[in-house]
Write a structure and sequence with these properties.
Blueprint: E1 16-23, H1 29-35, E2 41-48, H2 58-80, E3 86-89, H3 99-114, E4 118-119, H4 121-132, E5 137-142, H5 146-158, E6 162-168, H6 174-177, H7 182-192, E7 199-202, H8 210-220, E8 224-226, H9 227-238, H10 250-254
Parallel strand pairs: 1-2, 1-3, 3-4, 5-6, 5-7, 7-8
Helix pairs in contact: 4-9
């Protein structure tokens, strides 16, 4: 639904003020979202304070993401002081946990505390699949460990989407996720692709994939969806902002 007009619009965010919630270790979401920002929409990043966890196993990775989940409400309280119109989650892992039911409950808990709607990466991917149409079988690339990829598969299955195969990069820390090279990501997309999948999907918001995904759509001839692109696209569209933005793939250019 379109936002209600303010009696005195913000000088730069006269169309919408987005409160963006992201881990304090994440260096990719903030510039990615700003790159996709249309005129009149402003992004106000609130850091979810977390140590640079050394995610060296399934167990420590899950523990680190759950710490981020526990600290999210503190970041919400901080960003509410600028009176945003809408919240956008800039961390994707926890938004998949517990399947469709767990993801919905997590989102609704934040919304209840904030008194604002929240856009999450997991639900944004489902909305993106619906926009493209015909996506039922996917391949997934993540910086995660297998336990977290299993949660992604569970969530997708609950929505009628089959994860045919996946790759976990097993990044050793939160900050190292942002250091994965474009060449590495390009090679992993080639490994994941096949005639048996309708789309390639990247999760993990600290991977830098928005522009690579857009390019890969052209040379692979199928949807390649980066989580940050899907999330920001969905946030805009949920707020009645339909601007078409070039350079980030079909989602922002066509839908």
């Amino acid at each position: 639904m379109p936002l209600k007009p303010r009696p005195f619009p913000d000088a730069q965010g006269h169309r919408a003020l987005f409160g963006v919630l992201g881990p304090s270790t994440n260096t990719i979401v903030q510039p990615d979202f700003d790159d996709m920002r249309p005129v009149g929409v402003t992004n106000h990043y609130s850091r979810i304070v977390v140590d640079d966890a050394q995610a060296i196993s399934d167990e420590s990775f899950m523990a680190g993401t759950l710490e981020i989940s526990r600290n999210t409400l503190d970041a919400v309280r901080g960003v509410l002081t600028c009176n945003p119109d809408f919240l956008v989650m800039g961390m994707s892992a926890v938004t998949f946990y517990g399947g469709a039911k767990g993801a919905q409950e997590w989102r609704e808990n934040i919304e209840s505390e904030a008194g604002l709607k929240l856009c999450t990466g997991s639900q944004s991917l489902i909305e993106a699949f619906n926009a493209y149409g015909g996506i039922k079988r996917i391949a997934v690339l993540s910086p995660y460990f297998p336990s977290a990829n299993a949660q992604v598969s569970h969530f997708m299955s609950d929505h009628g989407i089959e994860v045919v195969r996946d790759i976990c990069l097993r990044c050793p820390s939160w900050t190292s996720i942002a250091q994965v090279s474009t060449a590495t990501l390009r090679d992993q997309l080639k490994t994941l692709d096949g005639d048996d999948v309708d789309a390639l999907v990247q999760v993990g918001t600290n991977l830098s994939m928005t522009r690579l995904a857009a390019a890969a759509e052209m040379y692979l001839g199928k949807p390649v969806i980066a989580i940050n692109t899907a999330t920001y696209w969905n946030a805009l569209r949920q707020n009645g902002i339909s601007d078409k933005i070039a350079g980030f793939g079909r989602l922002l250019e066509e839908f």
